[in-house]
Specification:
Elements (H helix, E strand, L loop, with lengths): L5 E6 H4 L14 H9 L4 E5 L2 E3 L2 H6 L3 H10 L15 E6 L6 H13 L3 E6 L3 E3 L4 H4 L9 H6 L4 E2 L9 E2 L12 E3 L5 H14 L5 E4 L7 H14 L9 H12 L4 E4 L6 H6 L4 E3 L1 H8 L3 H7 L4 H5 L1 E4 L8 H5 L1 H12 L4 E5 L24 H14 L3 H4 L1 E4 L15 E8 L2 E8 L5 E5 L9 E6 L4 E6 H6 L2 E5 L4 E7 L1
Parallel strand pairs: 1-2, 1-14, 2-5, 5-10, 10-11, 11-12, 12-13, 13-14
Antiparallel strand pairs: 3-4, 6-9, 7-8, 15-16, 16-17, 17-22, 18-21, 19-20, 19-22
Length: 491
């Protein structure tokens, strides 16, 4: 496990087209990856590299809800732009349009040589409804019968490859089934072994996996979702959790292999206890989005082991773009938050440029968007500041902003924390409101001089302050709405 790493997600099938038509992974210019390394990115997640089934596009790719998403994200889309969901996987071989297994291995070697680890997708819950495995390994899927099919022909289906059999589509229990998928049966020992073997195979081509909807294979969740089918066909709940077993098997082969779990429903801690190195921190994203300042402060005081295993993000391929969701200035304040706390810092391709369009994952072409230079400049500065060793190996602690005087409660709008590594210190203060806010911060400065100079690394401005005042009354801080300080003490 890497401590406090930065991860960068790439929508691979769309991204490679920026470098020319028919470009494969091995032909992407190396300087693209070097620039990310220079920004302090330690993990690149190539989202959507696996082979899918084109046959599901016509059958499932033009539902009314999907058509609406295409219209929102790509005004001039045409049928040829619809390439299907990357999470409806045929098998774990590299999509031929992106390259080969060997190219992926070579890319991993190169990325490792410049200090970057490679992540790929592992979709544990399902395969494509037209996957080759429907014929070759039918025992791994959740089988049903005519009664279930007649009762719910949206959730249960007869595959084209073998219409005599009936299976379940993959699903999240709170939403309709994904009709382009077929559900894995996690109460089947054959299925568990099959999926574990895939993970073992993936250790040859990557350094870790982002596990899609990692909560769904949990025994409780799976049982509650599919209780009727499981009972009818005599599948009893296994004694162990799939993830605990699978992760331990993989880590015996490669102890450094990393598991990142997409997780919701407050099951993050459960998944961490089963072996996940990191889990999504969606709750922090929503608290930042709803301006729940007290909630964010409370959230960040959870125990350190949870913090270090939390993946903090503002956007990804499933979320609205940060600028759209938060607004420009608040998105930068939120970026300062997630970039200067403990845990994984998770960014999405286009975030540093201020892109606004949430592209449907079924589309293979992206709209042209203007780069917002103000956002790009801010991220350039923020990424370089947080690239310093102190933000990876230092000790993080929350600080308590204090009022500057009776009746002034604007200090409540401010986040404050510090990083300490040996004799170095970084002090972060973020105004997470629309109005100018003030506070004092007691810092406990031990210094021979009566005065010290602080430099705000975001603006390069210098502030000369009395040590006694900082220690006894507190450092005076005033910030305009959604502005931030990252102070270093000059020696």
């Amino acid at each position: 496990m890497i401590i406090n790493p930065k991860l960068y997600e790439i929508n691979t099938r769309v991204w490679v087209k920026r470098f020319g038509s028919n470009v494969t992974l091995s032909q992407v210019p190396k300087n693209v990856f070097e620039e990310l390394s220079n920004k302090g990115i330690k993990i690149i997640w190539l989202m959507g590299i696996w082979q899918t089934c084109s046959s599901t596009i016509e059958k499932c790719g033009f539902e009314p809800e999907l058509l609406s998403s295409y219209n929102r994200s790509l005004k001039d889309w045409s049928k040829s732009d619809v390439i299907g969901s990357p999470y409806s996987i045929d098998e774990y071989v590299v999509n031929p349009a992106l390259g080969s297994w060997e190219e992926l291995i070579e890319l991993k070697k190169y990325l490792n040589s410049i200090g970057i680890k490679l992540f790929v997708d592992f979709v544990s819950n399902h395969f494509s409804a037209d996957s080759k495995y429907v014929q070759t390994n039918p025992e791994i899927f959740l089988k049903a019968d005519e009664e279930f099919f007649l009762g719910d022909s949206f959730t249960f289906f007869k595959p084209d490859a073998n219409p005599k059999n009936i299976y379940a589509h993959g699903r999240d229990p709170f939403f309709p089934a994904w009709t382009d998928t077929i559900q894995i049966n996690f109460f089947s020992l054959e299925a568990r072994k099959f999926m574990t073997d895939i993970l073992l195979k993936l250790t040859d081509v990557c350094d870790g996996v982002r596990c899609d909807m990692a909560m769904l294979p949990l025994n409780n969740v799976f049982q509650n979702t599919w209780l009727g089918v499981l009972n009818k066909f005599g599948f009893s709940r296994p004694d162990s959790e799939f993830w605990k077993s699978a992760i331990s098997v993989v880590k015996r082969k490669n102890p450094e292999f990393i598991f990142l779990g997409e997780a919701y429903w407050d099951l993050e801690w459960n998944l961490q206890q089963l072996g996940f190195d990191y889990t999504y921190d969606k709750r922090l994203t929503e608290r930042l989005a709803s301006n729940d300042i007290l909630g964010v402060k409370a959230h960040l005081q959870a125990e350190k082991s949870f913090q270090l295993k939390s993946a903090r993000f503002l956007e990804n391929h499933d979320e609205q773009r940060a600028v759209t969701k938060f607004g420009k200035h608040r998105s930068l304040a939120a970026a300062a938050v997630i970039s200067t706390i403990q845990g994984m810092k998770f960014f999405f391709d286009g975030q540093f440029d201020g892109k606004k369009t949430k592209l449907s994952i079924q589309l293979g072409r992206e709209p042209e968007e203007k780069i917002c230079t103000g956002i790009r400049d801010f991220y350039e500065k923020l990424l370089m500041i947080t690239k310093a060793e102190i933000f990876q190996k230092g000790e993080w602690s929350m600080m308590q902003p204090l009022t500057i005087g009776y009746g002034n409660v604007s200090y409540e709008n401010l986040f404050a924390w510090q990083w300490v590594l040996e004799n170095e210190r970084r002090i972060v203060v973020i105004n997470y409101s629309y109005s100018t806010s003030q506070c004092r911060l007691k810092l406990d400065i031990k210094h021979d001089k009566k005065k010290i100079t602080l430099i705000d690394l975001l603006t390069d401005e210098l502030y000369e302050r009395w040590v006694d005042e900082i220690n006894n009354v507190g450092l005076y801080v005033e910030l305009k709405g959604h502005q931030s300080h990252i102070f270093s003490i000059l020696t």
